[in-house]
């Protein structure tokens, strides 16, 4: 488990849809935006990338510049690690943002901040407080030593607990130590301003206690990033294999043992090339929160997998006309249980799903899954929703 992707650059065909803030920034800096058509045939403004720095994508997520990310490919096996790295990057970015929001909420509810607000009505520190980073840096000039001391006071008891925890392996201990630092490293200047303003003053112990509670909760929540990336990959591979089997039946009609054919590297390559030519791709989409203005939805992540064909728009219109007459909607676990017997990956899918569900429950992450199947075209749309 790692908060950042290991590679300095990832190679994936990325469609990045921007928020209003993100689009405004790009336009102000004279960067041309593209009108991008997504898997659900909606067109939105964004940018297209084939090679990108994980750090740059994370920075854009942290400052609310990205609303959706989508990739589409005929096969995912060759990009397995990159896709998993991207998935973890997105999950960690949302966790960092949510941690920062919860830390702020906890800080403004402390007695020392409330007393300050009562005594200084013209200098309130609350949810409506707006200060630019430049203003905050100016106010926190020469506070580096105080920040270092505050960090140490926040982390020392947590690190002691982690190191003394006999249920953790040495590797897990190192991961948790690293994660606590990563969350603090990405905490906003406004939170550090509050911490330094009340550092070692009466009531500061409550600030430390509340921060440690939130930090512990989010360090625990970070465990789900790995499970989510594995589940996403399993779903992508399952859809990829479904498409390859379907195309193999067309290309090698009359051959009984076509199942063995698809594992021949040369034949598989030809099938994938044909899927690419027909534009029969698997689409993976991550929808991030609801933007800075969507109260209560900032910590929401919706991951959607479309096993799409060229008739998608027609099917979508038919469904809307018939009021879902040929739509089969159920949970992901039912979807797996009802897959044809012997279909590769079914058992693994159930296995990953049960672990993901259990991991989410343990750390208070709300998780639900839904599968829509459109009978007219064998189109499958799988949606995973997480509320961090």
How would you describe this protein?
This protein is of the alpha+beta class and 388 residues long. Helices cover 53% and strands 18% of the residues. It is built from 15 helices and nine strands. The chain has a nine-stranded antiparallel β-sheet, sandwiched between helices. Strand 8 (366-374) and strand 9 (379-387) form a beta hairpin. The longest helix is centred in the N-terminal third of the chain and has 29 residues, at 80-108. The protein is elongated and about 85 Å long.
Identify the notable features of this structure and list them briefly.
alpha+beta, 53% helix
Side-by-side strand order of the widest sheet: 2-3-1-4-5-6-9-8-7
State the major sheet: 9 strands, antiparallel
**C-alpha Rg (nearest Å):** 24 Å
Ranges with pLDDT <50 over ≥5 residues?
A: 1-5, 322-327
Taken from the alpha-carbon principal axes, the silhouette is: elongated
How many alpha or pi helices?
15
| pLDDT averaged over residues | 88
Helix share, percent: 40-55%
Strand content: 15-25%
- End-to-end Cα distance: 17 Å
| Class by alpha and beta content | alpha+beta
The SSE order reads EHEEHEHHHHHHHHHHEEHEHHEE
How many β strands by DSSP?
A: 9
């Amino acid at each position: 488990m790692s908060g950042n992707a290991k590679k300095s650059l990832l190679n994936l065909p990325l469609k990045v849809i921007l928020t209003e803030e993100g689009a405004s920034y790009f336009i102000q800096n004279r960067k041309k935006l593209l009108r991008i058509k997504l898997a659900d045939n909606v067109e939105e403004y964004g940018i297209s990338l084939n090679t990108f720095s994980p750090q740059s994508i994370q920075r854009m997520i942290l400052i609310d510049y990205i609303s959706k990310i989508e990739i589409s490919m005929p096969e995912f096996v060759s990009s397995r690690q990159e896709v998993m790295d991207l998935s973890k990057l997105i999950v960690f970015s949302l966790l960092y943002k949510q941690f920062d929001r919860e830390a702020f909420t906890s800080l403004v509810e402390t007695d020392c901040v409330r007393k300050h607000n009562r005594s200084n009505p013209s200098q309130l520190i609350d949810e409506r407080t707006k200060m630019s980073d430049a203003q905050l840096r100016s106010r926190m000039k020469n506070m580096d030593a105080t920040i270092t001391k505050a960090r140490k006071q926040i982390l020392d008891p947590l690190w002691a607990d982690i190191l003394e925890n006999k249920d953790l392996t040495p590797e897990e201990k190192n991961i948790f130590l690293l994660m606590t630092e990563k969350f603090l490293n990405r905490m906003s200047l406004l939170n550090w301003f509050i911490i330094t303003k009340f550092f070692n003053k009466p009531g500061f112990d409550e600030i430390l206690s509340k921060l440690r509670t939130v930090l512990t909760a989010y360090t625990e929540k970070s465990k789900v990033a790995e499970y989510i990336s594995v589940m996403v990959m399993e779903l992508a591979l399952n859809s990829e294999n479904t498409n390859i089997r379907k195309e193999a039946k067309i290309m090698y009609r009359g051959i009984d043992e076509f199942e063995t054919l698809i594992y021949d590297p040369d034949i598989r390559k030809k099938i994938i090339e044909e899927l690419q030519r027909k534009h029969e791709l698997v689409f993976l989409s991550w929808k991030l929160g609801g933007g800075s203005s969507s109260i209560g939805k900032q910590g929401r992540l919706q991951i959607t997998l479309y096993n799409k064909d060229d008739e998608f728009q027609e099917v979508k219109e038919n469904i809307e006309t018939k009021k879902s007459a040929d739509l089969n909607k159920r949970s992901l676990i039912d979807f797996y249980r009802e897959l044809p017997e012997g279909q590769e990956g079914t058992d693994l899918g159930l296995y990953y799903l049960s672990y993901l569900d259990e991991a989410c429950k343990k750390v208070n992450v709300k998780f639900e899954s839904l599968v829509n199947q459109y009978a007219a075209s064998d189109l499958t749309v799988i949606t995973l929703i997480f509320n961090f």
